Amino acid sequence: MNPSNRIQSLPPYLFAEVDEKVAKAKSEGKDIINLSIGDPDLPTPKPIVEKLCEAVRNPETHHYPSYAGMKDLRVEISKWMKKRFNVRFTEDEICTLIGSKEGIAHIPLGIINPGEYAIYPDPGYPVYRTSIIFADGNPIQMPLKEENKFLPDLDKLKGNVKHLKTWGNKAKLMFLNYPNNPTSSVTGIKFLKEVVDFAIENEILLCYDNAYSEMTYDNYVAPSIFEIKDAEKVVIEMFSFSKTYNMTGWRIGFAVGKSENLNLLKKVKENFDSGVFNAIQIAAIEALTNKNVEKTERQNMKIFEERRNVVCEKLDELGANFEKPKATFYIWIKVNKEKFKENPSMKFCDNAIEKGVVLTPGVGFGEYGEGFVRLAITQSKEKIVEGIERIKDLF
Ligand SMILES: Cc1ncc(COP(=O)(O)O)c(C=O)c1O
Fold it and tell me: What mean pLDDT is predicted for residues 166-181?
């Protein structure tokens, strides 16, 4: 069979290449410490699991869910948005997702016509670019550079969009993600206001991916982009239960936005999927409302914060080049160019696998990720330290 042009225009999937190398190393009997996983090692808090067990025994939950999600869950999300960010959205302005990945993957189909332009951050979560390609759109790369603290250069972006317009083209969609994967950089209200103004001026739908909103340290509090005046005119914001409640396998997240924007996504979803299993939605209500879950969430963040502190101290001792992250469970480390002159990301990771440690090559997140590797603190403190010790000569 001839694959579609869409499939053929996808970049090579570097992570699969890494997986193959890891499988080979394992088959040779190597003991592997995997520091590449964007999936918390800690379990889902007990009350959420127990609520799922209870809900699944009720045959009422076994039917097709509603497309937008259970009203009770959307009401709780609405309350959470008010309590957490002081922004008001009704339950009709909220839509559950089968994980935020699903929302990201579907949104371009609601707004992009073949050949139209959409902006994605590079390095970035790979689904942004792929979803634009699958909608037959034209992806516009938006570099996130170290010298700009991994924020996009908005002046340059404005220039690019203006240039497109002079040729009769329009950018219609932009993805943005802070706290950021893979760079772990964060931002604040001032920068987000500039982005919102830019989106309003250019009639661009801004898809703000806030998957790591609750994974923050050192008293940094991640904002919702809706805290910016008028953002609701142009924004759909996506949240995830995956990282906050260690629920990656459950597949549940949600999108928030005014109906005229959110309906674009809802229309696609109504035609492609049938929502999230009701029992999981009932468990998600528990996640948002149970005080013990809130306590566990805080304890878990303390565990990640301690790991981050220990790991950063160790990396500092070794002279590694990185910024101590204020959010996410990733550390974005600059590869020593003296040691790895060509294909630094991949070469570093190949050498690390040889020593029994798996890291993610930055270039897997896009061209501008070259020269970096991502270390995830999703293993016990002892394991991570052992892993870093094994690769200490590479820094
Ligand atoms: C930036 C970002 N957005 C979205 C997701 C998807 O999360 P989920 O689909 O589990 O909600 C991830 C997962 O790693 C991510 O890193």
Answer: 94
